[in-house]
Amino acid sequence: MSRPAIPSRDALCLALALVAPAFLALTTTLLFAQSDDDLPTVAPSKRRVFLVETDEYIDDALSPLPDAKNDLAAIRERLEELGVPPERIEEYSSRQRAALQPSKRAIEEGFQRYLDDLTKDDFAFVYLVGSGAEDADARVSYYMPMDADPENFDYCVPINGENGLTTKLGKSEARFGLVVVDAGRLSRRSEGRVARGNIPGFPRSVALLQCCEPNQNSLALRGENGIFTAKLLEALVLDNNPADADRDGILSLNEFFQYAIRETSVEARRVYGKSQTPVASGAAPSFGLLKPEKTR
Fold this sequence. Notes:
Elements: H1 9-14, E1 47-53, H2 68-81, E2 89-92, H3 104-117, E3 123-135, E4 140-144, E5 157-158, H4 165-170, E6 176-183, E7 186-188, E8 206-210, H5 227-235, E9 251-252, H6 253-272, E10 279-283, E11 288-290
Parallel strand pairs: 1-2, 1-3, 3-6, 3-7, 6-8
Antiparallel strand pairs: 3-4, 4-5, 8-10, 9-11
């Protein structure tokens, strides 16, 4: 993958707060010059969270992922520690009652209700962990629910593209949306399902962070969290945050992306000798992801 081109003046206005080190390959990089002190933020009480975890599948062709439940539990616990009210967190996972199990229908219907409840003051955070796939022709990523058919994209949940989660989120009332996906992206041909030129762009109010490039897997620290999610957790802290590059006590979206991309890549190479390079896509406003009360 080639290094991203220098953005134009118009692209700078879109400002997806992401500046990658020279050795990292990204699909989309949009820059902004605003200082962290000036970044708009949303109070924890205005954050709305949608979590999905799938660790077992009906189809035997899909391997179980026993560590996925650890990832979701850790992300939820961290968000609550950061002040997100439990009643503003919706979860679809194997540990939930039947109506909240992660089937395709339950996820998509639940996500629509979640979207309907968002207001113009809300910051929407969506996190999915499990297995995924990539439509190599259409450039659409998919999440595999518990009832997924690994040979048929119609039984998977599209992440991007015309009917994807990012597109739907962009049509909501939310002030800003961040979709984070910790799922492998093994590519398959779609046999002409969607032409490349017909894939819609990302809404200006939404960003997507995926744990790896197409044809890479999400690697896990055995018995613990996935490497990518572990790095997210390291960055989602208020005190002594290693992702706070300028040490101003404010975690910008820019810094969050840089840290997750860089540290995941380094750790995957160190532990397994393999490549796992997270990818950021979309265009979003400059945004302060974490900002302690004293600096607001």
